[in-house]
Specification:
Elements (H helix, E strand, L loop, with lengths): L20 H15 L5 H7 L4 H8 L2 H7 L29 E6 L5 E5 L1 H7 L11 H15 L6 H8 L5 H15 L1
Antiparallel strand pairs: 1-2
Helix pairs in contact: 3-4, 6-8, 7-8
């Protein structure tokens, strides 16, 4: 055309085969046998043929998938806050929000945040394998809070992230952030 040559359009990669609900449930049941317990969503990510997110999207929630596979879902976490319409840090819409624990055990505390914010908070020394993970997570959460337009106020950060009474860590993170930006 008008002396120009055009390359043939690239063909699309073939779409991965979509698995039936029965195939997904069978994979979940097989993993339960291998683990000798009901798998968690993270177990599917680590050991299953399909990600936990696939089950969440296909069945509406991980709990629905577990129940469809014939297992009894774990009891819901008590005192868990209502799922917000968006990530409290970055404003990402509700889809994909996961519950982030600040404290485990009998006194569980946490908040719903999107996967990107969760991964940002847990990078590097904030990995749960580090005994000081909470210190690093709070530091990164406060930094993310401030980057996303949040106020540099301990009470507003505690409320926004449903933090336990760890004001000293929030205060330290605010101080560290202010010295880095000065």
């Amino acid at each position: 055309m008008n002396g120009h040559e055009f390359d043939e359009p690239k063909t699309r990669e073939p779409r991965h085969r979509e698995y039936s609900e029965d195939e997904l449930l069978e994979d979940l049941q097989q993993l339960a046998e291998r683990l000798d317990r009901v798998p968690r969503k993270a177990d599917m990510d680590d050991y299953g043929q399909h990600s936990g997110r696939t089950y969440q999207l296909r069945f509406g929630s991980w709990t629905n998938a577990v129940e469809a596979a014939g297992f009894e879902a774990r009891d819901p976490i008590e005192d868990i806050q209502d799922r917000p319409e968006e990530c409290p840090l970055c404003g990402t819409p509700e889809t994909g929000l996961d519950y982030h624990h600040w404290r485990y055990g009998d006194n569980k505390i946490g908040c719903y945040i999107c996967r990107d914010c969760h991964d940002t908070i847990h990078k590097g020394p904030a990995d749960r394998d580090n005994p000081d993970w909470l210190v690093h997570c709070v530091e990164k959460a406060v930094k993310r809070h401030l980057e996303c337009g949040g106020d540099a106020d301990i009470a507003s950060i505690r409320d926004r992230l449903n933090l336990p009474e760890i004001d000293v860590l929030v205060e330290r993170a605010l101080e560290d952030h202010s010295t880095q930006t000065d």
